[in-house]
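Hi R.,

Here's the chain you asked about this morning:
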Amino acid sequence: MGLSRHSAVAEWEGNPVPEAPVSPESLKESGLTTGFVCDMILRTVYTRGVTIGRDLSQYLCLPFKVIRESVRFLKDEKLIQVDGGDLVGDVSYRFSLTDLGRDRARAAMEQCAYVGPAPVPLEDYVEQCYRQTVTGLQCYPESLKAPFGHLVLKEEMFNNIGPAIISGRSVFIYGPPGNGKTAMARAIGDFMNTAGGSIYIPYAFVADNNIITVFDPSLHVIDDTADELVDDADATVRKLLSTGAVDRRWVRIRRPVIVTGGELNLQMLDLRYNAESKFYQAPIHFKANGGVFLIDDFGRQLVSPKDLLNRWILPLEDRHDFLTVASGKKFQVPFEQLIIFSTNMDPKALVDDAFLRRIRHKVGINAPQRDVYERIFASNCKRLGMNYDVTAVDYLYERYYTKGRTPRASDCRDLLETVQSICRYRRQPVHLTRDLMVEASASFIAEFT
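And the predicted structure, written out as tokens:
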């Protein structure tokens, strides 16, 4: 298989970069069959028209020496023809489809219309996934300061986060609304995305001739610090033709951070089949392997908490999941991600003890005490370029917080941004006074009778 050979481990941002999959030297090492590659070549030339050999290699992300055998087979079978080329060999030839080749290509498109980088075998994906798990990442208080720098946390709460990240298991963050649960969860994601190192994922993998796409440019951030990333097309071709280069069927990305909220349903956790193109897209949580999957506002999803937890109770315990294709066949795949549940509902009303036992870390975030509230308030004043006026805080406690309203960390941001809007509307310098806070809070904290 293509992953039997690897380059040396590199270092990035304090965490090791997993070994890069090395480009295959032969069709056998690619893990694909001649027939499979022939169909991909036919579909590629059918959709792109006359194609130069090196461009075909680049489209498929496979060295030309790997596809040469398939190209020759198609030529011998009179499915493709050579329309000319330079003297450097078949890598420079211009290939087009014959009439017979177009018929065969249309038949291949009806079976599967996938065109793009050749997939890797499922076994290679699984092997690479276990090389780059979230478990055991290097995480120290110093490395957490940057992603958590904008939050005001008590020391004991801050010190609970690191072990949760290192465990790579699951985290349950709960407490009343407006006190930073989502912000904390996203800060964990920021750490993973920036200081957690990078990983390799395939554009797609193949399982029992079913192509399943993995890389999603809307969710995955390409690590542009990678040495193997080049913009020069000629340099890309040279890498495809050289020995020991990184397998271009894989993408080096920053550890993914995928956030879902009330829109989550059970169908999103299954393979998505495109009936027209005849291939699959990996489910949303699968794309989070090697990173973070945040379920925000847990308990408010389209799917009930019970059904969602029943779907995940075994994956959380066993660290693997199953994907099911249209034929009913199941494939075991890794479930290697840090799952964060964030909710402002009572955990006991959402989940039972059996599930809570499988959640390794529980972090409760309560309403801030006054000293913490003042620090959050001052931090937001600084962010908005506004003076800090303690009399404005005094007013909030006198008028609201000592008379039944529970302080929320988010009140600081919301009230001060309201003050900012008032100042800008009046063409005044942005500043804070007790009177402006009286006006802003009357607007923001509506009292209905």
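The mean pLDDT is 85.

Let me know if you need anything else.
M.
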